[in-house]
Amino acid sequence: MAEQKKKHKKRRTATRAAASIGPMVKEFIAGTVRAQREGAQKLAYSFIVCHHEEILRAMDVLPIWTENFAGVCGAKRDAERFLQRAESLGFSRSLCTYALCGLGFDHWREELGEMPPDAPWGGQARPDFMISTGQILCDPRAKWYQAAQQYMPDVPIYNIDLPYPLYHPDRDHREELPYYHKYIVEELKGLIAFVEEQTGKKMDYERLWERVRLSDKTWNLIEATYDLRSAIPCPMGTGDAMNTMVPINFMMATQDAYDFFLNLKQELEEKIKKKEGVVENEKYRLLWGGGLPSWFALGDFNYFNSKGAVFPAETTYRMVAPIAEMNIPKTDDPVEHLAWRWLGYWTFWYDKARQRKGGEPDVERLINYIERYKIDGVVMHEAFSCRTWHVGLIWQLHQLAKIYKPIPVLRLGKDGNKTQAWRENPSLVLESDIIDITSYSEVDTRNKIDAFIDTLESVAKSRVD
Amino acid sequence: MNGKNSVISSRVEALYRDYGKRAKELKDEGKTLIGYVCSFVPVEMISAAGCIPFRIRGDINEPVTKGDTVLETIVCPFIRSCFDLALKGKYDFLSGIVIPHGCDSMTRSYSTWSYSLDLPYAYFLNIPSVVKPASFEFFAEEIKTYKKTLEAFIGHEITEADISQAIKLHNAYRNKIRTIYDFRKSDPPMVSGVEISKILTVGTSLPVEEANALLDEIIEELKTRSEPPLKTGKRILVDGACVDHAGLVKLIEESGASVVAETTCNGMRDTFPLTDEQEDPFTGLARRYLDKINCPKTYRENRAGSFEGNIADRFGDIGRYAEHFHADGAILYVYKYCDPFGFEVPARKAYYNAIDLPLLWIEDLYSSGTMGQIKTRIQAFLEMIEQ
Amino acid sequence: MADYFAGIDIGSTMTKVVILGDEIIATVIGPTGVEQRRLANKVMEEALSRAGIPFEDITYIVSTGYGRINVPFADKQVTEISCHAKGVSRLVPAARTVIDIGGQDSKAIRIDANGRTKDFVMNDKCAAGSGRFVEIIADCLGVPLQEMGTVSLKSKNPASISSICTIWAQQEVTAGQAKGRPIPDLVAGVHRSLADRVVRMARRIPLEKEIVLTGGGAKNAGLVAAVSHMLQTALLVPEEPLITGALGAASLGRNMVEKAIKKGISLETKKRVLDVVQIL
């Protein structure tokens, strides 16, 4: 339906830090609109997880995170009109709905020469240039801005290629890293040259180093902060992490991001001291093991909470890893460092996966989190419009169940005697979309959650440790 | 001419109907077959290794069942069908598989493929998504890694001479396909779209030497053909992703038109570009696969600085083919859940509009079940351009 | 002797026949249903008898609609796209867009002043985008199908039915009912949901005025109001919106014959025997 905008109850967050995110996002969306009006800073449409924030920040370019804006439209249940506009332009509704929402919005804004009526949080500013990215992550990232150029032909694009080697169990990826690294360095340097041309400013490599050091420091702080969530009871869940992903993904390489996590860490430490958990009577600890959330239905996390379930960890949007463990070669060049960090992040679980029979990096990460955060069950979300994060999840759950059975139970043998056996973690796959609310059924989703809670309960009863 | 002695109606038809028939025989003879999906896999390297590249095909008549238990339904329906058949044992004669960075549906399902099929050889080939000097360099290195893994698998070295020889053979194959395409230029064409669809599909299921010999026979047959297989009708270009079956083209031709060109992944997008035989083989292959294969997955910089100029650059080959084969209309056939093509539909529509070629855009699943609905659209489109 | 032309439009639920002389001389509409396959020829028979002319006097017969292939006595098959375009143009010469909401699918056609198709879109066969959707919900709410339109017009506050899937929409309606939402609001919500699907598809072509709504959907005042609301414009509905396909078929038949005469060629015609129509 066109009129999707119901008055939507504000979601409860467990932490003060998470509650502060809403106004923060509102401000940086408003900030880009302001900056565009004032004209002092160049604005760039950008994608998250490109390890180029340091470059943009060092050159005073203000990124406009188009995925974020689409997510905001989704969370405000006001994406439908932009999705429909994209659809009327000839884009299939089966494509990435972030991109569709952005394209619909851009087309509308360009047609009017001003923001579409009642644009969420003041709307998305027109960029000076766009930085798209063909990684081996996500096709829409290479296609979205190219498609947007049809409606803004004067806005140039730089497409940055950032590959990483895929995992092969029988091969050491390190052999390939040198040519990957060389290529990524070239690509990042190409981006710097492009931004220099667009802004008319030269890159100050000392400033770049400062930014790089700042984000490295932030990465480590985030790791330390999120590790606190392993406490029982768990002080912060995935519901909140879907807010705190904002400084990780949209504010990296800024002092604000670092300070945010400093505060959050302090808050979590206090909660742990006071044994204050997300839920009063914590029964089940769940891992959000894959998939982007339905931004319009974050309330489902509260629903889990109401059943005594909490999410101490998630793989989604935790786009950092402990830098010290990456063995990044020493270098004087911040760009080389960024390229190594990129490769270090994506291959982080490769060695560990190779040590386990049937191991695979994504599955290994699930196992690691299950152990580290004392997890009872895994929940994933299958968003129909996004292949990037939602293909391979079912297989991962299969493989996880096959190679990892952490729960001790008694089983009735053929002879009638009970023997000790091990079973896998229960899992649940929810189905909907990131922002397309027409794909969501609250009744259906909650029924699934209820059934999953029943399973967790029966598994808990049959545990023998 | 389509009688008993016809190569097209007997051998091609048999190989098309029982896809992998010859591959099974070869496997029994002790040959090593390596499967692949997409046009981005340098098959030359597999041939140079003494193995047989085998293009994995889907089946529009086979509902996806087993595949759905491990692979998400939001994956491109073509890849889902391929995976389902592989999982059901249809391609058990394969000893290995190569999946390229063609799209998210391939990339993100690589673990699912490699672990589920558990073949002795599996390789994911990384392909840059931009065309720049640095990306050619990277890609040439990646092809070297691909070669190394094949060497480890077969247990001996692949020499530059082996690769050069394979490049020649595969170029010869592509040249022969071009020769067959020449028979489409007359009105009505002397070879039907359905025949070409089957030839294209069958061609990539055989060792390249055998395929070349088969194409030679087909060319001889076409040279002596006296009657065109179809009546004069509107001439249609089919544009889109991989259409490795004759079903769609059959619908078009049964509705009174002739398909005269197909800028599809298993059609001209793949079969027309050649590898430069003068260059160092790694550079030559890197150039062919990265630059000459015109796939939406590859980002091409907007050098023109305008939208009109950009689409002329990006899709100019389509216009040239349309003109060369005298197309009266085009059908843009795109799968649901295909991000690379899906995001280009408005731009492609604008391009067809710019070259004044009527266009029908169809979004479809990879299934014979939807063909009935498509038929009405195709017929209405033909009525529209005939009026 | 005047020339007569017949158009037969076999849709998923209704079979329509129009016999055309200089004017429309007969129009018959009958159900297509599975058990009534024979009705297609019965409808033709009825039309002939109303027109008062023998079958042999029909110069040319064009069949259309999803059952068009299987009409043994039709001289030519033409898609419903071309036929609706032609039929609507004949009834409403100012029409530039046709939106047809049928029992099983819906389509939008851009036409020129001569009733020629310039562009068209058609949805996938899916209950949620066709008249079938209203039928399912009518059944679920226990409202007689033909009253759905008038019931919906009573609503002041249409319910929001967000699901695109018929089954989920059904769930939403049931949940709404349980919550005590008035039936007119639910029915109006359902009409808006269908209208939304149809309009979303139609917007893929430029929607030029006048916009004419045809098919079974056009007989539902609630749906017409909903589509008009979404498009923010008035719609035209022909007096009998079910016959535009058959009328267009007959009319195109006349054009074909005239063209053939001009070119001096003869057109093949079938034997004028009312054989049973098999619809697969």
Plain-language structure description:
The complex is a heterotrimer of chains A (465), B (387) and C (280). Chain A is of the alpha/beta class. Chain A has helices at residues 16-19, 21-38, 53-58, 66-75, 80-89, 97-112, 140-148, 177-199, 205-227, 238-250, 255-273, 299-306, 334-346, 350-354, 361-372, 387-390, 393-403, 442-462; strands at residues 43-46, 62-65, 129-135, 157-162, 284-290, 309-314, 377-383, 407-412, 418-423, 427-432. In chain A, strand 5 (284-290), helix 12 (299-306) and strand 6 (309-314) form a beta-alpha-beta unit. Mean pLDDT of chain A is 94; it is low at 1-7. Chain B has a domain at 19-160: Rossmann fold (3-Layer(aba) Sandwich), CATH 3.40.50.11890. Chain B is 50% helix and 12% strand. In chain B, strands 2-1-3-4 form a four-stranded parallel β-sheet. In chain B, strands 6-5-7-8 form a four-stranded parallel β-sheet, sandwiched between helices. Chain B is globular and about 65 Å long. Chain B starts with 7 loop residues before the first helix and ends with a helix. Chain C has a five-stranded mixed β-sheet with strand order 3-2-1-4-5. In chain C, strands 8-7-6-9 form a four-stranded mixed β-sheet. In chain C, a hairpin with a 3-residue loop joins strand 2 and strand 3. Chain C starts with a strand and ends in a 17-residue tail after the last helix. Chains in contact: A-B, A-C, B-C. Chains A and B meet through strand 3, helix 7, strand 4, helix 8 and helix 16 of A and helix 5, helix 6, strand 4, helix 7 and helix 15 of B.
Short descriptors:
heterotrimer; B: 387 residues; alpha/beta; Rossmann fold; four-stranded parallel sheet; 8 strands; 50% helix; globular; C: 280 residues; Nucleotidyltransferase, domain 5; 2 domains; five-stranded mixed sheet; four-stranded mixed sheet; 9 strands; 19% strand
Intertermini distance of chain A: 51 Å
The assigned CATH architecture of the domain at 279-317 and 349-465 in chain A is: 3-Layer(aba) Sandwich
**Got a strand count of chain B?**
8
Helix and strand succession of chain B?
HHEHEHEHHEHHHHEHEHHHEHHEH
Main β sheet profile of chain A: 4 strands, parallel
- Give me the Rg of chain A, rounded: 23 Å
Number of helices of chain B: 17
Order of helices and strands of chain A: HHEHEHHHEHEHHHHEHEHHHEHHEEEH
The radius of gyration computed from the alpha-carbon positions of chain B, rounded to a whole number of angstroms, is 20 Å
Q: How many distinct helices of chain A?
A: 18
CATH topology (level 3) name of the domain at 19-160 in chain B: Rossmann fold
Sheet with the most strands, sense and barrel status of chain B:
4 strands, parallel
The appropriate CATH architecture of the domain at 19-160 in chain B is: 3-Layer(aba) Sandwich
Amino- and carboxy-terminal Cα gap of chain B:
33 Å
User: Hey, which two chains have the biggest interface?
Assistant: A-B, 62 and 60 residues
